[in-house]
Design brief:
alpha/beta; seven-stranded mixed beta sheet; five-stranded parallel beta sheet; binds thiamine diphosphate
Amino acid sequence: MTGPLLAGIETPADLRRLTPEDVEQVARELRDEIVATVSKTGGHLASSLGAVELLTAIHYVFDTPRDRLVLDVGHQGYPHKMLTGRREEFDQIGRAGGISKFLRRSESPYDAFGAGHAGTSISAALGMARAIEHQDRDACAIAVIGDGGMTAGMAFEALNHAGHLKQKNLIVVLNDNEMSISPNVGALSSYLSRKLSTPMVRRMKGWAKEFLGTMPGDMGYWAHKAEESLKVFFSPGLLFEALNFKYVGPIQGHRVDVLLETFANVKTMLANGEGPVLVHAITAKGYGYEPAQQDPFKYHGVGRFDVESGAFPPSKPGPPKYQNVFADTLIRLAREDDRIVAITAAMADGTGLDRFKSVFPDRFYDVGIAEQHAVTFAAGLATEGMKPVPAIYSTFLQRAYDQVVHDVCLQNLDVTFALDRAGIVGADGATHQGFYDIAYLRSLPNVILMAPKDENELQHMLRTAVEYPGPAAVRFPRGEGFGVPLDPEIKSVPIGEAELLRDGDDVAVVAIGTLAHAALDAATELSAQGISAAVMNARFAKPLDRDRIVALASRCRVLVTVEEHSALGGFGAAVLELLAEADVQIPTRCLAIPDRIVEHADPGALRAEFQLDADGIARVAAALLAEHPAR
Ligand SMILES: Cc1ncc(C[n+]2csc(CCOP(=O)(O)OP(=O)(O)O)c2C)c(N)n1
């Protein structure tokens, strides 16, 4: 269903051959095709629709890829992908072997910088702009960042540095739709908001005129002056001008004519040495597709839907999602203990904490896309005797590593980290995989780290973590639980205690997290082959249950560890360290995510590929046993 103009665009050079009037038509065709395709593939709909005109105009006016275009997060990049030679592959977005939902340098020379996490674009573009200058090339770097992305501390670090350098070939385009995934939060967001700069400024200008009009002499002139300075004072530009940026805006981000003219002017400004420039474009998330524009939150990341009505297929009743069990449990615990407060970094919906917010609005904090601040804010709360629970995806807590080390663990503060999306994430791919948290946490002092085998154990572990007086983390996966019954009473788990789920004496399978279930199924398969397998649910990656693991390893012939985490520095590595230290010699295989980049694919297929399913575990265990028939 590719439109006639779009069909002729293989690269932005083809776009540049069109007339400015045609560019509007290209934008319309892009929008239709994005809606039609995403309705079948799923993906980031509303953000991409909101950036259609912006990205098309940038590719038209600037000479990409010579001029470097850096998109923050990359989730709004679908129009960019379609204009840069990936239209044919677009229906495979997020599928195994298909193009990524975010940006990858390996995917296209037009993806100047890989993305997936928010807040990085200005730093990267500044680095590029600087390199271009070092190498005496004639080009610029353009960062496109949302008002959500702008809440990331890194964005300000970069603005500060760019302003200091007075980087002449740098453009920052602020794509301001007042939305993060949910409505954006923060003082900056209200500062940027038109609500401040229109009716209120008008009222203030009126008062000023009235007041000055009562003054004698040449006050008409001064009234006019005052009006002007009020306009500047309340213009969102002041902040950026103070950081040495030339501020252009606010402009209407869906008017192709306005965008083309503005970017052409900005190009001239750069040529005149007036950079860095910040272009403030006002856009509407979901623009041009009525259902998404009405409810951009619902259409931020979508599955399949019906284009005509905007309706999603009815969700099949299934087991509860981990995030919801987490949030519901936290609500129950918070009813008992008013020291508990919940913190999210712009993921109230994804973490389930929107439920907590509706029950305890005063004990809920959305800090914006600011994981570093979230962690140190939690640390501060903990110093005063509160029990903060930052719920942050495993992949996003990476951003706040030093805060975890320096502010929480070294001070042994009572912070509970709820690490959602730990393990394989599926369509979101490499940037979002939760593969490193065991490694990055277990090396830290004071922290305890657990992973539940199912949603019922998640409840108990959350209580354990909250009651533990120091830093504690619970990692749990994306998606639905197993549908196991949830114990009505939430009991804490003894710290560092593993549980033997099944006894056996040939093979010891020691699993952490939800793969304990696959390990149990593997044991059933092995017993059909006459192999007796014990299955242990380790529960804790730190502290390990030394006694139980050593006892089991001492009486079995081979050992297999299982985890949905990187093999390097993970749970299996911890078990090997323990066995070495305890002088237990046992042939061992560690099943884990291999040391390579794992792209988007179906989670089940990836588990099978890495032998992290029942068949794989059974196969590895049987082969290991065959290699070591006697001990
Ligand atoms: C470090 C980090 N934290 C959280 C996220 C999850 N996330 C993806 S998009 C998004 C909102 C981005 O909002 P904005 O930059 O305004 O773009 P919009 O979707 O509104 O166009 C968030 C919070 C992320 N990608 N990276």
